[in-house]
Amino acid sequence: MLISDARRALFVHVPKTGGVSVGVAFERCCPDARSKAPGVHPALGRHAPYARILRAEPQVADYWSFAFVRNPWARMVSWWSMIDDWNRAWGPASGRPQGEGATRMRGNDMWRAAAAYSGFEEFVLRGPDELPRVGRPQVEYVRAPGREVDFVGRTESFADDLATVERRLGGDPVHVPHRNRSPHGSYRDYYTDATRAKVAEVYAADLDAFGYTF
Protein backbone atom coordinates (compact mmCIF):
# COMPACT_ATOMS: atom_id res chain seq x y z
CA MET A 1 0.00 0.00 0.00
CA LEU A 2 1.17 3.48 -0.88
CA ILE A 3 -0.67 6.80 -0.55
CA SER A 4 0.07 10.21 -2.02
CA ASP A 5 -1.89 13.01 -0.41
CA ALA A 6 -0.47 15.53 -2.87
CA ARG A 7 -1.66 13.54 -5.89
CA ARG A 8 -4.69 12.12 -4.05
CA ALA A 9 -3.74 8.64 -5.15
CA LEU A 10 -3.73 5.19 -3.53
CA PHE A 11 -1.92 2.03 -4.63
CA VAL A 12 -3.33 -1.25 -3.29
CA HIS A 13 -0.55 -3.85 -3.41
CA VAL A 14 -1.92 -7.31 -4.23
CA PRO A 15 0.77 -9.93 -3.46
CA LYS A 16 2.77 -11.36 -6.37
CA THR A 17 1.56 -8.94 -9.04
CA GLY A 18 4.66 -6.82 -9.70
CA GLY A 19 3.91 -4.48 -6.82
CA VAL A 20 7.56 -3.75 -6.00
CA SER A 21 8.07 -2.32 -9.49
CA VAL A 22 4.79 -0.40 -9.26
CA GLY A 23 5.95 1.06 -5.97
CA VAL A 24 9.15 2.35 -7.60
CA ALA A 25 7.08 4.15 -10.25
CA PHE A 26 4.63 5.48 -7.67
CA GLU A 27 7.39 6.94 -5.50
CA ARG A 28 9.06 8.51 -8.53
CA CYS A 29 5.81 10.24 -9.53
CA CYS A 30 4.77 11.00 -5.95
CA PRO A 31 7.70 12.06 -3.74
CA ASP A 32 5.33 12.31 -0.76
CA ALA A 33 4.37 8.61 -1.02
CA ARG A 34 3.69 7.05 2.37
CA SER A 35 2.50 3.75 3.76
CA LYS A 36 0.73 5.23 6.79
CA ALA A 37 -0.17 8.47 8.50
CA PRO A 38 2.25 9.02 11.42
CA GLY A 39 0.49 9.04 14.75
CA VAL A 40 -2.89 8.08 13.29
CA HIS A 41 -2.79 4.30 13.21
CA PRO A 42 -0.30 1.43 13.06
CA ALA A 43 1.04 0.40 9.69
CA LEU A 44 -1.66 -1.35 7.71
CA GLY A 45 0.82 -3.70 6.16
CA ARG A 46 2.31 -3.89 2.73
CA HIS A 47 -0.60 -5.90 1.32
CA ALA A 48 -3.56 -4.29 3.06
CA PRO A 49 -6.83 -4.79 1.12
CA TYR A 50 -8.73 -1.75 -0.13
CA ALA A 51 -11.52 -2.20 2.42
CA ARG A 52 -9.08 -2.24 5.36
CA ILE A 53 -7.31 0.86 4.07
CA LEU A 54 -10.60 2.76 3.84
CA ARG A 55 -11.55 1.78 7.38
CA ALA A 56 -8.21 3.00 8.71
CA GLU A 57 -8.02 6.15 6.56
CA PRO A 58 -11.54 7.08 5.39
CA GLN A 59 -10.27 10.38 3.99
CA VAL A 60 -8.65 8.51 1.08
CA ALA A 61 -12.00 7.24 -0.16
CA ASP A 62 -12.05 9.98 -2.80
CA TYR A 63 -8.46 9.36 -3.92
CA TRP A 64 -7.80 7.79 -7.31
CA SER A 65 -7.06 4.15 -6.50
CA PHE A 66 -5.46 1.34 -8.45
CA ALA A 67 -4.04 -2.15 -8.17
CA PHE A 68 -2.54 -4.88 -10.33
CA VAL A 69 -3.74 -8.49 -10.69
CA ARG A 70 -2.36 -11.62 -12.31
CA ASN A 71 -3.52 -14.88 -13.87
CA PRO A 72 -4.13 -17.07 -10.78
CA TRP A 73 -2.34 -20.12 -12.21
CA ALA A 74 0.74 -18.07 -13.08
CA ARG A 75 0.57 -16.31 -9.73
CA MET A 76 0.67 -19.58 -7.80
CA VAL A 77 3.76 -20.74 -9.70
CA SER A 78 5.46 -17.42 -9.02
CA TRP A 79 4.53 -17.61 -5.35
CA TRP A 80 5.86 -21.13 -4.97
CA SER A 81 9.09 -20.27 -6.81
CA MET A 82 9.71 -17.39 -4.41
CA ILE A 83 9.02 -19.50 -1.34
CA ASP A 84 11.03 -22.45 -2.57
CA ASP A 85 14.00 -20.25 -3.48
CA TRP A 86 14.04 -18.67 -0.03
CA ASN A 87 13.71 -22.04 1.66
CA ARG A 88 16.63 -23.42 -0.35
CA ALA A 89 18.71 -20.35 0.38
CA TRP A 90 17.97 -20.00 4.09
CA GLY A 91 16.43 -23.26 5.34
CA PRO A 92 18.32 -26.04 7.12
CA ALA A 93 18.96 -27.86 3.83
CA SER A 94 20.94 -24.87 2.56
CA GLY A 95 23.79 -25.58 4.96
CA ARG A 96 23.82 -21.92 5.99
CA PRO A 97 24.08 -20.96 9.65
CA GLN A 98 20.53 -20.53 10.90
CA GLY A 99 21.04 -16.90 11.89
CA GLU A 100 19.07 -13.70 11.33
CA GLY A 101 18.07 -14.48 7.75
CA ALA A 102 16.82 -17.90 8.68
CA THR A 103 14.97 -16.45 11.66
CA ARG A 104 13.14 -14.01 9.37
CA MET A 105 12.29 -16.87 7.06
CA ARG A 106 10.89 -19.01 9.88
CA GLY A 107 8.88 -16.05 11.15
CA ASN A 108 6.79 -16.01 7.99
CA ASP A 109 3.95 -18.51 7.84
CA MET A 110 4.56 -19.28 4.17
CA TRP A 111 8.27 -19.90 4.70
CA ARG A 112 7.48 -22.32 7.49
CA ALA A 113 4.89 -24.07 5.35
CA ALA A 114 7.35 -24.39 2.48
CA ALA A 115 9.64 -26.42 4.70
CA ALA A 116 6.81 -28.89 5.28
CA TYR A 117 5.34 -29.11 1.77
CA SER A 118 6.89 -31.67 -0.53
CA GLY A 119 6.64 -29.48 -3.62
CA PHE A 120 4.44 -27.33 -5.82
CA GLU A 121 1.57 -29.80 -5.95
CA GLU A 122 1.24 -29.94 -2.18
CA PHE A 123 1.56 -26.15 -1.98
CA VAL A 124 -1.39 -25.76 -4.36
CA LEU A 125 -3.55 -28.46 -2.78
CA ARG A 126 -2.91 -27.49 0.86
CA GLY A 127 -1.67 -23.91 0.84
CA PRO A 128 -4.94 -22.09 0.06
CA ASP A 129 -6.66 -23.90 2.96
CA GLU A 130 -3.83 -23.53 5.47
CA LEU A 131 -2.42 -20.10 4.60
CA PRO A 132 -5.03 -17.31 4.60
CA ARG A 133 -3.00 -15.00 2.36
CA VAL A 134 -2.58 -17.70 -0.28
CA GLY A 135 -6.27 -18.58 -0.16
CA ARG A 136 -7.53 -15.00 -0.59
CA PRO A 137 -8.74 -14.18 -4.12
CA GLN A 138 -7.23 -11.05 -5.60
CA VAL A 139 -10.65 -9.48 -6.07
CA GLU A 140 -10.96 -9.23 -2.29
CA TYR A 141 -7.98 -6.85 -2.27
CA VAL A 142 -9.47 -4.46 -4.80
CA ARG A 143 -13.05 -4.24 -3.53
CA ALA A 144 -14.68 -2.59 -0.53
CA PRO A 145 -18.38 -2.49 0.34
CA GLY A 146 -20.18 -0.78 -2.52
CA ARG A 147 -17.04 0.15 -4.47
CA GLU A 148 -13.75 -0.98 -5.95
CA VAL A 149 -10.48 0.56 -7.00
CA ASP A 150 -10.65 2.89 -9.99
CA PHE A 151 -8.13 1.08 -12.17
CA VAL A 152 -7.00 -2.55 -12.28
CA GLY A 153 -3.81 -3.21 -14.23
CA ARG A 154 -2.58 -6.67 -15.18
CA THR A 155 0.85 -8.19 -15.09
CA GLU A 156 0.13 -9.62 -18.55
CA SER A 157 0.12 -6.06 -19.93
CA PHE A 158 2.37 -4.65 -17.24
CA ALA A 159 4.33 -2.03 -19.20
CA ASP A 160 1.27 -0.49 -20.86
CA ASP A 161 -0.82 -0.49 -17.69
CA LEU A 162 1.98 0.95 -15.59
CA ALA A 163 2.39 3.72 -18.17
CA THR A 164 -1.33 4.47 -17.76
CA VAL A 165 -0.80 4.77 -14.00
CA GLU A 166 2.23 7.02 -14.40
CA ARG A 167 0.36 9.38 -16.70
CA ARG A 168 -2.56 9.50 -14.27
CA LEU A 169 -0.13 10.40 -11.49
CA GLY A 170 1.24 13.25 -13.57
CA GLY A 171 4.52 11.66 -14.56
CA ASP A 172 6.07 10.73 -17.87
CA PRO A 173 6.15 6.95 -18.38
CA VAL A 174 9.64 5.61 -17.75
CA HIS A 175 10.73 2.01 -18.13
CA VAL A 176 10.80 0.46 -14.66
CA PRO A 177 12.51 -2.94 -14.36
CA HIS A 178 10.07 -5.64 -13.27
CA ARG A 179 11.67 -6.41 -9.92
CA ASN A 180 11.30 -9.79 -8.20
CA ARG A 181 10.40 -11.31 -11.58
CA SER A 182 10.20 -15.10 -11.29
CA PRO A 183 12.69 -17.01 -13.47
CA HIS A 184 10.45 -20.04 -14.06
CA GLY A 185 9.22 -21.08 -17.52
CA SER A 186 5.63 -21.52 -18.62
CA TYR A 187 3.29 -21.84 -15.66
CA ARG A 188 1.24 -24.45 -17.52
CA ASP A 189 4.12 -26.94 -17.25
CA TYR A 190 3.73 -27.05 -13.48
CA TYR A 191 0.16 -28.28 -13.34
CA THR A 192 -1.64 -31.58 -13.11
CA ASP A 193 -5.38 -31.92 -13.59
CA ALA A 194 -5.83 -31.86 -9.81
CA THR A 195 -3.79 -28.71 -9.18
CA ARG A 196 -5.31 -26.91 -12.16
CA ALA A 197 -8.78 -27.64 -10.80
CA LYS A 198 -7.81 -26.55 -7.29
CA VAL A 199 -6.69 -23.12 -8.49
CA ALA A 200 -9.89 -22.73 -10.50
CA GLU A 201 -11.91 -23.57 -7.38
CA VAL A 202 -10.01 -21.34 -4.94
CA TYR A 203 -9.83 -18.33 -7.26
CA ALA A 204 -13.21 -18.70 -8.96
CA ALA A 205 -14.02 -15.10 -7.99
CA ASP A 206 -10.90 -13.88 -9.83
CA LEU A 207 -11.75 -15.88 -12.94
CA ASP A 208 -15.21 -14.35 -12.92
CA ALA A 209 -14.08 -10.79 -12.19
CA PHE A 210 -11.07 -10.61 -14.50
CA GLY A 211 -11.83 -13.23 -17.16
CA TYR A 212 -8.69 -15.30 -16.64
CA THR A 213 -8.41 -18.79 -18.14
CA PHE A 214 -5.74 -21.46 -17.88
From TrEMBL:
SUPFAM superfamilies linked to this entry: P-loop containing nucleoside triphosphate hydrolases (SSF52540)
Coiled coil segments of this chain: none
One Pfam assignment: Sulfotransfer_2
Domain of life where this protein originates: Bacteria
GO cellular component terms listed in the entry, alphabetical order: membrane
MF terms in GO: sulfotransferase activity
UniProt protein name: Sulfotransferase family protein
Species annotation: Nocardioides cavernae
